[in-house]
Amino acid sequence: MSKKEKITVQGTEITIISGKNDDYICLTDMVKGQEGEDHIRNWMRNRNTLEFLGAWEMLHNPAFKGVEFDTFLHEAGANRFNMTPRKWIEATDAVGMISQAGRNGGTYAHKDIAFEFGSWLSPVFKLYLITEYQRLKEAENNPMLGEWNVKRVLSKVNYTLHTDAVRDFIIPKMDVEREKAYAYADEADMLNLALWACTAKQWREANPEYAKKGLNIRDTASINELVVLANLESFNAELLKRDMDKSTRYACLHEMAERQLTRLNAIDAEKGFRKLGAKK
Length: 280
Prior knowledge:
single chain; alpha+beta; 5-stranded antiparallel beta sheet
């Protein structure tokens, strides 16, 4: 179980170690900055917790020692009763939890158990934990998703360069404040028209089901389209610096978008991205 990954849940970085079929989430990370292992021990002293842990082991672990479990269950609830992950593992041969020593060690639990612990900590924290875990799994199962996110970030970075150019080379030429307010959206829509032949408003009207979810035309773009969009943003910023009029810029951008997208689709660039993702 050597593969390690991290997710961030409500500002807390949590380690996940993965084997062939199972993922184990670090409980120690989940309570980092709080009472640490005390939280874990207090949770394990709870009779309901022990019943859950025992039920999980009986479902997944043929070597689970039921007699020792019954003894613990009988003692649970008494003031003197104490339970730790290591004690639980050594006494019952449990496989649902892992206790690692050392600087990078800690207590790990199978995702089923980790979600249960998260619920004990806070139902809201559990929901965020499940969401981030699922996001990680989706990215692993679909290499294109990770590549899409990279390209989406790239287009956003280039968008900053684009808006800076609008601020520096278009806004100063405008006298009417109302026109200044629409300048950024107007330039962004010119790129939309050059690439997708529609404005952001036209796309929302044509795709109300996506608009209701807060998605826009760029959120639903393909990787090839995002690559071209990033190039258009950079190119338009340069054209603005050259004081080129809008109609001429649009003609250049439209020609560039058509040529690049046709070429990327022809060589199946997205398939190339998939191959790169598979090698990681």
